[in-house]
Amino acid sequence: MVDIATRVHNHKWKIDPIVRSLIDTDFYKLLMCQSIFRNHPDTQVTFSLINRTKSVRLAELVDEGELREQLDYARSLRLARGESTWLRGNTFYGKRQMFRSDFMEWFEGFQLPPYHLEKRDGQYELTFEGKWHEVMLWEIPALAILMELRGRAVLDRMGKFELQVLYARAMTRVWEKIEALRELPDLKIADFGTRRRHSFLWQDWCVQAMLEGLGDSAKGGAFTGTSNCLIAMRRDIEAVGTNAHELPMVYAALSETDETLRRAPYKVLADWHEEHEGNLRIILPDTYGTKGFLELAPDWLAGWTGIRIDSGDPASGAEDAIAWWRARGEDPRDKLVIFSDGLTVDKIRELHAQFSGRVKVSFGWGTLLTNDFRKLVPDDGLAPFSLVCKAISANGRPTVKLSDNPEKAMGPEAEIARYKRVFGVGDQQAFDVVV
Amino acid sequence: MVDIATRVHNHKWKIDPIVRSLIDTDFYKLLMCQSIFRNHPDTQVTFSLINRTKSVRLAELVDEGELREQLDYARSLRLARGESTWLRGNTFYGKRQMFRSDFMEWFEGFQLPPYHLEKRDGQYELTFEGKWHEVMLWEIPALAILMELRGRAVLDRMGKFELQVLYARAMTRVWEKIEALRELPDLKIADFGTRRRHSFLWQDWCVQAMLEGLGDSAKGGAFTGTSNCLIAMRRDIEAVGTNAHELPMVYAALSETDETLRRAPYKVLADWHEEHEGNLRIILPDTYGTKGFLELAPDWLAGWTGIRIDSGDPASGAEDAIAWWRARGEDPRDKLVIFSDGLTVDKIRELHAQFSGRVKVSFGWGTLLTNDFRKLVPDDGLAPFSLVCKAISANGRPTVKLSDNPEKAMGPEAEIARYKRVFGVGDQQAFDVVV
């Protein structure tokens, strides 16, 4: 067991890498990467860091030299032999050889492409331009590096024992959450907290605590795994995750006409349908509004295993999905609903109570599992904040996201208006974006 | 920084010694040992373990084999060269060569004498018979071993993360106490918690936390040191403590007549007066009742530096001392009052408020600093309890202690009655003995 406080105290090492492996990333990035590698190998995409919490002035908190050092270190990483063996030989979602040979050969030679970094208005402009399947692998390391450097800047001012007590408090908090979750019968929950984690060691601790406290779902417990491949490999648990908004966003940006734009989200899932089955067939419906997406969805999509609710009011999202399955002649009790947005223990308890028995319920717990240091330091300097790294253009065309929460919308205004018209999105209810 | 939870988790090592040095003991034991070595080298004394908390059935909780193993290990210890150098070369209470050469030569050859162990009524009868200055050195190791073995028995049933969270909670608790104490202006407080500590590593952690949180009093902080010599040596802080009840108890037991009995407590201090000065001249008045002790005290005793209040109501004890100093023409503001019984943060705050400015106030914080795991495990299995190791006879005559709390009295009934008569102790108010 690592003494995290000691390690943090020793952060004045020449470099204590934040990202220490190319598979210290979310499993779904690799799945999507493989899909893009096959279907869109020549698409040029720009990813960009976006700090939605403007009050956190990252460029004032985080030293540019340290940031470059960490980004450069990440660029030096190559897939290790054991990691490659694990990706090639492991069973994911019950399937062997999830990653095809051509993809693995490419990945074994891969290094993260160059980045572009500038300071502007107290924030960092950090962008990655290049082939989609290459730049997209920057998303998680870039986020993890910035989140952790911001944390380190705050921790640097603390004494050895203050640090140890900080971690003692944070551990106690995580454990109390786990104790509360233990009370929920037939709970299924996974760690989705890589991108905005406090640190790698901390995420690893949280995963192990979940494993001990809730039990491995492979052995009848409630903990279904982690989205983090490195931790999944090291702790010998399931790596989980399916797909994300970047697929419909880029597919949509590449559409020439309103009609192809309207069909883009379904084209994404049609491609996915060819490649994956079972629990990997999870709909992510909210990129351009869940309601319209479900109404216009082709019938074959109702046959998919489940849905992931990632914005808006989660209960209404799930009720909409249930109504939609019923309307399409599907039994919701056979369907999986994965909640993954803004989860707290109370929210999990509430959704679990509302939906258990009506659908198969599962949770992907992110930032408030792996980065809940709220109110533990003066000025709440470790509170999580809403940092994302998104595809902002594809082949020179801007991307747009609407989501079920206007606070999470992104893209040029005129394009947002066009997308709203094309996807029939009217007024939306706003929800605070904490993380 | 040691990861305590990991160490505890690994306690299945062949032997993880509880007492790992002959100076892992209270400083005052060594001071008293030297005094006895000089003044009473031939006195035969029996020390005995006494568990005042009968509900904690030690012989059912602690395996006899493990107990013998730890006691035997303690018997194998010899003073290490660095320890001897430290005792010989260090400055204690501003004085060089506190320990004389003849004593040091004897101590360098010393090993703990044999013990006698039996089970009776769910408790261990553990006694040490021999020369006073030899058997008296068993007191602290015997207590520490039994306290820690009881803790280990409870911890053995816990998982790795449960353990880590247990320590996280306990650390948070200690730190919150320190944060509260930080608010008290001109506080002076030392660690007196060796004998009933949770464990050596934990005491060491608590001392370091006090040092970081309150600051070293040598540099203007509130933390004045630790009674534990090994920790004082390793952490380079003051070793503190003066004398204890065993001196008047044995001197009293050796008295042939009521008259010599009555004078015994003053004889102790007269011997001490010859050997020590300054801050080592601290009266411990309660062995046979503080009130009578002060009334009958010789005038020279009022010239001593201070008093230690170790039983009864501490505020009345201190008020009695103040009145006594005034009556003897001393200015209480020049006097030191050390509170060392049953201290909690609230009690410290209260006594500090009542006596600051009127006398020099200081605190010797014991069990609730180094062993506050109350309510942190099921059935409160780690709650501290009242275990002592006392001289029960000297040259075949029973010892008696009355104290300012009848709950702490000990000795044969007839002898207690005699002592009460000789020392003029009437009805006493009883106080719960937590530790």
From TrEMBL, chains A, B:
<keyword id="KW-0808">Transferase</keyword>
<dbReference type="InterPro" id="IPR041525">
    <property type="entry name" value="N/Namide_PRibTrfase"/>
</dbReference>
<dbReference type="GO" id="GO:0016757">
    <property type="term" value="F:glycosyltransferase activity"/>
</dbReference>
<dbReference type="InterPro" id="IPR007229">
    <property type="entry name" value="Nic_PRibTrfase-Fam"/>
</dbReference>
<dbReference type="GO" id="GO:0034355">
    <property type="term" value="P:NAD+ biosynthetic process via the salvage pathway"/>
</dbReference>
<feature type="modified residue" description="Phosphohistidine; by autocatalysis">
    <location>
        <position position="245"/>
    </location>
</feature>
<dbReference type="Pfam" id="PF04095">
    <property type="entry name" value="NAPRTase"/>
</dbReference>
<dbReference type="GO" id="GO:0005829">
    <property type="term" value="C:cytosol"/>
</dbReference>
<keyword id="KW-0436">Ligase</keyword>
<comment type="function">
    <text>Catalyzes the synthesis of beta-nicotinate D-ribonucleotide from nicotinate and 5-phospho-D-ribose 1-phosphate at the expense of ATP.</text>
</comment>
<feature type="domain" description="Nicotinate/nicotinamide phosphoribosyltransferase">
    <location>
        <begin position="188"/>
        <end position="426"/>
    </location>
</feature>
<keyword id="KW-0597">Phosphoprotein</keyword>
<feature type="domain" description="Nicotinate phosphoribosyltransferase N-terminal">
    <location>
        <begin position="23"/>
        <end position="146"/>
    </location>
</feature>
<keyword id="KW-0662">Pyridine nucleotide biosynthesis</keyword>
<dbReference type="InterPro" id="IPR036068">
    <property type="entry name" value="Nicotinate_pribotase-like_C"/>
</dbReference>
<dbReference type="InterPro" id="IPR040727">
    <property type="entry name" value="NAPRTase_N"/>
</dbReference>
<protein>
    <recommendedName>
        <fullName>Nicotinate phosphoribosyltransferase</fullName>
        <ecNumber>6.3.4.21</ecNumber>
    </recommendedName>
</protein>
<comment type="pathway">
    <text>Cofactor biosynthesis; NAD(+) biosynthesis; nicotinate D-ribonucleotide from nicotinate: step 1/1.</text>
</comment>
<keyword id="KW-0328">Glycosyltransferase</keyword>
<dbReference type="Pfam" id="PF17767">
    <property type="entry name" value="NAPRTase_N"/>
</dbReference>
<comment type="similarity">
    <text>Belongs to the NAPRTase family.</text>
</comment>
<dbReference type="GO" id="GO:0004516">
    <property type="term" value="F:nicotinate phosphoribosyltransferase activity"/>
</dbReference>
<dbReference type="InterPro" id="IPR006406">
    <property type="entry name" value="Nic_PRibTrfase"/>
</dbReference>
